[in-house]
Amino acid sequence: MRQNIYDDPEFFEYYHRLRSTGITYNDFVEQPALMGMLPELQDRQVLDMGCGSGQLAAYMIGQGAAHVTGADISARMLSLAAEHPKIRYIHGPMEELDFAAESFDLIVSSLAFHYVEDYEALMDRIARWLHPGGHLVFSTEHPVTTAKLDMDGWVEDQQGQRLHYALDNYSEEGIRHTRWVVEDVVKYHRTLSTLLNGMIRHGLQIEQVNEPEPIPGAVDKMPTLVHEWRKPSFIIFRAVKPV
After folding, report:
1. Which pTM value belongs to this model?
2. So where are the chain's domains?
């Protein structure tokens, strides 16, 4: 199933307001690490899958990319994206994207692939769309975060202090339902081996894996980030299509 949760008015309003604060896990953990894993961008043709409001696309153009194609299922998120002559936005689910073989030097995705049911088909298309020597860089929620069937892993004492994180149902891959702002947000859990082998099976070579930690000074602004040293929220991969 494909869920367009970002066009839900309540969810969109909350998410837009949250991201506008600049004090989020994205700002202090995931985005700095993802940007740090991007290859040379000068004159590159880029596809941003699940581009949201276009912030990463604009960053990559600022770093010298020749052109970025951004795609997102959410019309509300795309409405926030600033127009740019070197950025083309496509409204639609990433499962329905279709490009010619070897169209891109870089395919990037920030926290979107855990919404896709068929990871194997996704990796097959990405591998075809990349030029030889082209890169895939993507972040997703960490498998230890998505594993539990109820996706509620922290065990707390009577005072609400977090004691430890419970890992369960790790090998039971598939759909997960959770509440985040609204009920029944749908994500898909995959083991680390599935994430890695899906790339390898389609001819991509893993170059780097990162379980990012908060940037310096972040915990002072967002104290809950201290738990990132106890349990990672995200994992980021960089792979290349051999020449």
Report:
1. 0.93
2. 5-25+41-240
Backbone angles phi, psi at 176, to 5 degrees: -130, 145
Sheet holding 87-91, edge to edge: 87-91, 67-72, 45-49, 104-110, 130-141, 234-240, 205-210
Angle at 63 between CA 58 and CA 66, to 5 degrees: 80
pLDDT digits (tens, 9 = 90+) for 162-191: 888 888 999 999 999 988 888 888 999 999
- With bands split at pLDDT 50, 70 and 90, how would you rate the model's confidence at 75? very high
User: How distant is the alpha carbon of residue 26 from its chain centre?
Assistant: 10
228 alpha-carbon distance from chain centroid:
17
Q: Taken in order 22, 23, 25, 31, is the CA torsion positive or negative? A: positive
Report the alpha-carbon distance of residue 201 to residue 88 in Å, rounded.
30
Cα separation, 112 vs 144, whole angstroms: 17
In the block, tokens 């790790």 appear at 170
- Cα–Cα distance measured from residue 26 to residue 64, given in angstroms and rounded to the nearest whole number: 23
In 30-181, beta strands by DSSP E: 45-49, 67-72, 87-91, 104-110, 130-141, 154-156, 162-165, 174-180
The answer for residues whose C-beta is within 8 angstroms of residue 137's C-beta and 6 or more apart is 34, 37, 38, 39, 106, 107, 108, 109, 236, 237, 238, 239
- H/E element, 199: helix 192-201
The superfamily (CATH) of domain 5-25+41-240 is: Vaccinia Virus protein VP39 (3.40.50.150)
Task: Name the pairing type of β-strands 45-49 and 234-240.
Answer: unpaired
> Is pLDDT above 70 for 1?
no
